[in-house]
Design a protein that fits this description.
This protein is of the alpha/beta class and 697 residues long. Helix content is 41%, strand content 17%. The chain has 25 helices and 28 strands. The strands form ten sheets. The protein has a five-stranded parallel β-sheet. It has a four-stranded parallel β-sheet with strand order 17-16-15-21. A hairpin with a 5-residue loop joins strand 19 and strand 20. Helix 9 packs across helix 22 and helix 12 runs antiparallel to helix 13. It is globular.
Length: 697
């Protein structure tokens, strides 16, 4: 029960058991003025605060009610002890100062750390020379082979360290070429299992997707190349800067050539246990005359020559002695080929002319410049979805880049290009276009080595544009499991119908039939054949989804079975639907990665195979699956915008600058090393701050 008591001082009624603020509120309103209410509202409401002023609970409950004098004293004490509020502007100033100081400290520590690291990279004293053990066969190789040439059996660095000493007795893996396929193979190969040798006429890996950007100075040339020796160092391999000329498949010897220090060509043999041909391709001339007046875009040297030619034309057009006719011709840029390379170069060229030219060159040049894109098909980017091709054409039309579709170049002259164009009514007219620069980018063709190998293998090679391989990437016509071909120089042969007998042999034996051609397949047998086809030809999986419908469609006589003729017709239909794999970097990369995993597994299986004396037969198929290409999509830059075609079942979209940043991010992530990524990022930043480099050197 609550105790109540009247105060002598004020005669007010107070409830002592209530919280302090409730006790104050029990005072009559006529005594507590508005100012006094504000004082009360600022007083602490917690009994804990009151307990600090009372010696114990008993004192607290027997204390007489507070008077107005007490209230004034409490309000004075509370106002003195109340924290002072800081202005918001001052708070933000403190936070900014703290953030700025932390940033300066972080950057300073980074700069100091960099200089400390940089100081450790210098060597003040000469490296100690020591006695080396080098085999006489390394200095004076023995001669042999069909042409009695030196055979490089021992390298001069085989005794450099313990790792190389262990590797010299490993199986010899020779890779011809340092492109996408060869580098992908090197990066995923187990270095403990193979003695690796790379033979290439260039000592660098080139990041080809960004090559058009280097032609106009958006990216520096060094940002796209990585020293091949730095990549090979990861697998402790050897590098020979030479050109492969021929291969002796029976003796397992690669004939290579190089010009020595006296300018004399030297040839020698490189032995191998497994050989990978990844020499790439060359530009397809299509039998057109006058291609010596054109530029190509396959190598870093081509990019430098193109940049120099563009700058040269711009500078010549500024001279007062240049006539109007010559000026228009010099500023007429023609691109032959509407594929990704041609389209991206035209887009980069437009960016250069539109963003940098108008600032540094006379305005007259911008009015006289013209860019023309010649395409033999009815759309540019014809391997992409039609909506993306149309978007690219509309974008070029807006940017005043002339797209000439259904046009075929017949001749290239020194100062003009002649082509035929098919009109909408079917008529063909011949046109001649003045030009000061022409880029030829119209497909690929076989390199010289591939032509030599194809001629040597005869009937096993029927493709005029690339070397044919089976689905395990083994070169047709060579000893099984010795020679492989990947990248642009090769194509996978999808001849499903030619293997019909091998598919039926086990089923015929199961049914007791000696001649597979007399076998009739029930649906269960057809399902068994389909599984064999999927395993041997992975690219056919997409065409064998509805086995019941295929069985019903090709059962012409409605007998409930498929005879030999009906099965052959079905497999030939599947053959016709299988297209050649695209000659792209992602295909070469996937094939190189596939071979690396296969070789790693073959090396692990080698001891067991030797123990069981298994050296012949289809070891590749027994150890590893067939190669299956997975299309990850296609990208193209079309001038401050980009298009994405992510496959048959993927997304297809295009956009402006956000798509450009996505396009850059994808290729940035695919760059071969951290070094090239840093250089690419610096080049993009340099372009934004200072513009492109308009220098010829």
């Amino acid at each position: 029960m609550l105790s109540r008591r009247l105060s002598r001082d004020t005669g007010l009624r107070t409830v002592h058991s209530l919280p302090f603020r409730a006790r104050i509120s029990a005072y009559p309103t006529r005594i507590v003025s508005p100012s006094q209410r504000r004082i009360v509202s600022n007083l602490p409401s917690s009994r804990t605060t009151i307990l600090r002023t009372a010696p114990d609970f008993k004192t607290f409950f027997t204390t007489p009610p507070l008077t107005l004098t007490h209230l004034r004293q409490l309000s004075t004490t509370t106002s003195k002890n109340a924290p002072k509020t800081t202005p918001k502007a001052l708070k933000y100033a403190y936070r900014f100062a703290a953030w700025f100081g932390s940033s300066v400290l972080f950057v300073s520590l980074g700069v100091i750390g960099f200089f400390v690291y940089d100081a450790t990279t210098y060597v003040d004293h000469a490296s100690n020379k020591s006695d080396l053990t080098i085999s006489q066969l390394a200095l004076n190789p023995r001669r042999g082979g069909p042409k009695n040439l030196p055979i490089l059996e021992v390298f001069i660095d085989d005794e450099d360290d313990e790792d190389r000493k262990r590797q010299k007795d490993k199986p010899r893996l020779v890779i011809l070429g340092g492109g996408w396929g060869g580098v992908a193979l090197l990066k995923e190969l187990n270095p403990e299992d193979w003695h690796v040798t790379v033979v290439s006429p260039t000592n660098y890996f080139l990041f080809t997707p960004m090559l058009p950007s280097a032609t106009v100075g958006t990216l520096g040339l060094r940002s796209l190349v990585e020293p091949i020796r730095r990549i090979i160092h990861g697998v402790r391999g050897r590098f020979l800067r030479a050109r492969a000329e021929d291969v002796d498949f029976s003796a397992r010897l690669v004939e290579v050539s190089q010009v020595d220090c006296h300018g004399v060509e030297q040839r020698f043999y490189v032995p191998y246990d497994k050989l990978v041909v990844a020499v790439g391709s060359v530009t397809n001339a299509h039998g057109v005359k006058g291609l010596e007046h054109c530029h190509f875009l396959k190598d870093i040297r081509d990019a430098r020559e193109i940049r120099n030619r563009i700058i040269r034309n711009l500078e010549l057009a500024c001279l007062p002695t240049t006539s109007d006719e010559d000026r228009k011709r010099l500023l007429s840029f023609v691109v032959s080929g509407g594929g990704p390379t041609g389209v991206e170069f035209a887009a980069e060229l437009y960016d250069l002319l539109n963003e940098d030219l108008i600032q540094l060159f006379p305005r007259l040049l911008r009015n006289e410049i013209s860019v023309h894109l010649i395409q033999s098909r009815d759309h540019i980017l014809n391997t992409y979805d039609e909506t993306l091709s149309t978007y690219a054409e509309e974008r070029f039309a807006r940017d005043q880049v002339e797209v000439l579709v259904n046009s075929r170049v017949s001749e290239v002259k020194e100062d003009s290009i002649v082509f035929t164009q098919k009109q909408k009514d079917g008529t063909v007219i011949t046109k001649e276009l003045p030009m000061g620069f022409c880029l030829w980018s119209t497909g690929v063709s076989q390199a010289d080595l591939c032509k030599t190998l194809s001629g040597k293998l005869g009937k096993a090679q029927n493709n005029r544009h690339a070397l044919e391989t089976d689905t395990h990437l083994r070169l047709n016509g060579t000893p099984l499991g010795d020679v492989y071909a990947i990248g642009d120089c090769a194509t996978v042969q999808n001849n499903v119908a030619d293997h019909i007998i091998s598919f039926l042999r086990s089923i015929a034996w199961k049914h007791g039939v000696t001649d597979p051609e007399k076998l009739s397949l029930h649906f269960s047998d057809w399902r068994n054949v389909a599984e064999q086809v999927k395993k041997r030809f992975p690219q056919a999986v997409g065409h064998l989804k509805r086995l019941d419908k295929l069985f019903e469609e090709y059962d012409r006589d409605r007998s409930g079975t498929l005879d030999f003729g009906e099965l052959r017709e079905l497999l030939k239909t599947i053959d016709s639907k299988l297209t050649s794999l695209p000659a792209t970097a992602q295909r070469a990369h996937q094939q190189g990665s596939y071979l690396a995993h296969k070789f790693n597994k073959l090396a692990r299986a080698a001891p067991g195979l030797r123990a069981n004396e298994i050296s012949d037969g289809d070891v590749d198929a027994a150890v590893y699956k067939a190669f299956e290409y997975k299309h990850l999509g296609s990208l193209a830059y079309i001038g401050n915008s980009a298009v994405f075609d992510l496959g048959n079942d993927g997304w297809r979209f295009a956009g402006g600058l956000w798509a450009v940043y996505a396009w850059r991010s994808i290729y940035f992530a695919q760059s071969v090393s951290f070094r090239t990524r840093v250089l690419m990022a610096m080049d993009w930043g340099k372009r934004a701050l200072f513009g492109r480099d308009l220098m010829s050197y």
